[in-house]
Amino acid sequence: MKRIRTFLSTLSRITSITNSRIRFIEMTILFLILSIAFFVRILPLRWGIYLSEFDPWMQYKEMMYIVERGWSGFFEFFNWHDYESWYPYGRDIGRTAFPGLPFLAAFLYNVLKGLGLTVDPLHLAAFLPAVMGILTTLLVFLLAREIGGVQTGLMAAFLIALSNASVSRTHLGWFDDESVSIPFMILGFLAYILALKKERSLKSVILYSILSGISLGYVASSWGASRFPIAFIPVFTALLALIGRYRRKLLISYVITSLLYISIAVMVPKLGLSYLREATTLLTFAVMIYLVSFEIAKIKPTLLRNLPHWILIFEIIAFVTFISLGSIGLPGIKFLSTIIPTLRSTLPIVISVAENQISTWAIIFQDSGFKLLLIPAGLYLLLKRREDQDIFMILFTVLVIYFSSTMVRLTILTAPAIAVVAGYVLAEMFKGFARNLHHFYARREKTRPIGLEYYILTPILIAGLILVGILPSAYGARYSISAIDVGYSPPTVVSSSLPVRSSVQDWLRTLSWMRDNLPSDAVVASWWDYGYWITILGNRTSIIDNATLNSTQIGEIAYAFMSDEETAYRIFKKFGATHVLIFITHTVYSGQYGNVPTFLGYGDESKWIWMLRIANQIGYNLTETEYRDENYQPKEKFWTTLLGQLIPYKPQQMTGGVTGYFYSPPTLNHFRLVYESSKPYESIAYIYIYEIVD
Asked: Which of 598, 599, 628 is nearest to 611 (CA)?
């Protein structure tokens, strides 16, 4: 007996040491994955510390407003009316912006400052998205671990660390809503799944539900697309109850989670109390009533057995009826169009932005890579098991793939779901190969139904496909499914808004010139795409910007560009403009007929079509076909508009019937050229600033 106890004790120690080593290896692998996630996301550091695109600069401006005022800035923010944008009326920032991201960044800055650590606010804003990328990777690991164990978690973490879609929204400088909203959304989902575990104590259910509600509430304060997670929780919960998985802890968890995130959401001025009558919020309350009906049915099971079904039918009928009558508030068309994409065609301002357009399979594959091919197998495996968390992942994955197919920007939503499901498939696949290899060598029969090469070549093939989506392409490639290529791209302002992997200094030079040379009270009119840069980097007042808050004002500026000089002059003076800025992309290529100067199509030389359409949207009757031909090339009438005249490259017929666009500076009565970012034919991006004269 003593020998047996000694043997068992030794075996226990060996098992403990082995398990400790396995955990150490797993934690080491996770640490390496998190390191990879960080280093890929800071690759833009090569070009210096800048923010990407346009919206992050506005987020930074909001952060700086708070930072400059200290802790009181968090309160003063809600009374901030900014007259540097949307001149002459200004913008009520506190009521038209989501405070989540600037509040978080300003809070971190103030805490670090309080600890005696002084950091550059711009550096903090630039690095925060990369840190959030690490947090996203860690949370995906935890979520995937709940689905299929540690192996699935590590696989999923690796896939999200090098996910094209994730890197594109969490790299250095992407100081925008998605960078913080996605990790907090995953945290909210993870906490809700943990709260629903059947073995949970009531105390644990309450704690996890509070964490879920606060996390999703923060998403609601940060991102307009929070309507998806806030609507998803009720849909998932109702589905569980509908298939017979109702339990009292489900009601408790749902009530705590939903009341918390709704309470936080209505405190955001941009949403306000009117958010309570919006469809997504009413859906939350409807599901709450549906769950309560299960508890009522327990009072008299025989008599009230079908009460939940009748409640559900009644709520569906009432919901449809009230929506038809207009009694229920609906999200804007931009959000509804993710469900019905054809609605987007009614908003030229929205569809003029590339990331708001309908995705193609090429774009989805570019963002998701070969992982997308594993999704059907993953959904099948989850459907076969059908645990609560499996149903959650099935519903989550199917919905986000659909939504991402209706709007390019929402591919970021698919990244965590695809990583988890694909990671689960890979983990199960490699575990299966390991078992089969063991059985292969353990067999004593002479006949083997499957050859060894299948057990070796299949995982190599799958691993090879995954690696293809990771390895960077040749330098300068424009289209790639590699996250490294996405990360290794310059900030937009450094590349002058061109899809090149090099520095084009024209915009940086222009914004510096504006700060140093334009009068402090200058008001610059331009297309709305450049409004944030003009206001924040150029430190001059703009008339319209990327917030696209006032479609009428945008339409007026659009009409000015599409009008003759005298009409445009009157419109610009009405808005108090002192200068007009245009952005042109132009190059010279060698062709069959020699050097041909041509437009690249990334500046106002192609955006004018949207100016025309938006002007039409607010009531100006401009016939589009009078301005462009069937190939969307400008006709003669376009060159008589103000924009056509301000563009200093004019069309000329060349040998062989080729049209070249040659430099020919305009001579106008009310617009005098005062700045050009580069001399003709010396760059590929040109910014021209004209002073408005009487």
From this structure: 628
